[in-house]
Structure formats: C-alpha cells, structure tokens
Write a structure and sequence with these properties.
metal-binding; four-stranded mixed β-sheet; Glyas_Bleomycin-R_OHBP_Dase; alpha/beta; Glyas_Fos-R_dOase_dom; about 130 residues; Catechol 2,3-dioxygenase-like lactoylglutathione lyase family enzyme
C-alpha cells in the first residue's frame, strides 16, 4: 500500500497566533469592537486566549515585549466589509489602509489593533 502524499492530506481552518502586550486590552478590543467571544484561556496570569466569531478564530499570546510588525498578521473575510469599516471608524480604530476595491478582486481595508498588529479585512468584490 502506498504512503499518502501531500495531495492526500486535507487542510482545515487555520487560526493565526497574535502576540499582544496586554491580553486583557486585546480581549476587550476583539470582543467589544469586532464581536468575538472568548472560548478558552489559560495561565495565571492569563497568557493565552482563544477568541471565536463564526468560522474565524484568533489565538492571543501575552508577549510583554511585543513590537508590532509592519506587515499584516491576519486576513479576515467578512460578509459586509463596508459595515465593518464603518464600525471601526465609529469606534476610533486606527485605519492603516482605507476601504477600497483592490486589483486582486476584493474590497478591503487594513486596521491596527491596540498593539499595532495589522489586520487585513475583505470580501470579494463583484
């Protein structure tokens, strides 16, 4: 019997790990602004947390010396990117790239979380 190859392996949903200086402030942002729900945490003090909304999942890790990247750490597909953009603007979220139609077939924008992590949000443009 032949050994399975990479083509035989199905990959599932991926959940990005995001480093944050203050895990409780990050929790408040992702829950309060984006509507995620905490489904797991561990450590005392808390050093790891899992947040979910729909099929999206984020793994937060407390990293006291965290310095944000200048590149996006996550891309989230949403059903109404314009509505989420308006919510982010109304909540004072720092917008890195304004909402626009992209040449790769998406309507998208980029914002920064409280730790400066860049999150790219989009939906297919029709």
């Amino acid at each position: 019997m032949a050994e399975p190859g990479i083509a035989d392996i199905t990959f599932g949903r991926a959940a990005p790990g995001i480093s944050v200086r203050d895990i409780h402030a990050a929790h408040d942002f992702y829950v309060g602004v984006l509507g995620f729900e905490k489904v797991f945490e561990n450590g005392s003090p808390v050093g790891f947390m899992v947040l979910k909304k729909g099929r999206a999942e984020i793994h937060l890790s407390r990293t006291p010396g965290h310095k944000p990247s200048t590149t996006n750490v996550m891309h989230i597909y949403v059903s109404d990117v314009a509505a989420l953009y308006a919510i982010c603007e109304s909540k004072g979220v720092r917008i890195i790239k304004r909402l626009a139609d992209k040449d790769y077939g998406q309507r998208a924008f980029v914002f920064a979380d409280p730790d400066g992590n860049r999150i790219d949000v989009g939906e297919p443009s029709n």
